[in-house]
Amino acid sequence: MDRITIDPAICHGKPCIRGLRYPVEVILELLSSGMTIEDILADYEDLEREDILAVLAYAARLSHVKRVQMLAA
Hints:
Layout: E1 4-5, E2 16-17, H1 24-32, H2 37-43, H3 49-62
Antiparallel strand pairs: 1-2
């Protein structure tokens, strides 16, 4: 998890990869749009396979909740 960093001076404090300006949410959006890890690595040469795997692990960890409560509209 040391590949995911949070710095108020970078991308407004959003979780990013290794202090670079690649927010976790952007990589997740690319993956959810159908891009493969290899596609992303080809487009962003300064990223490494382990970075993408760290993004997925970070997202999985965030999804661990005890319960979800619906809010009234």
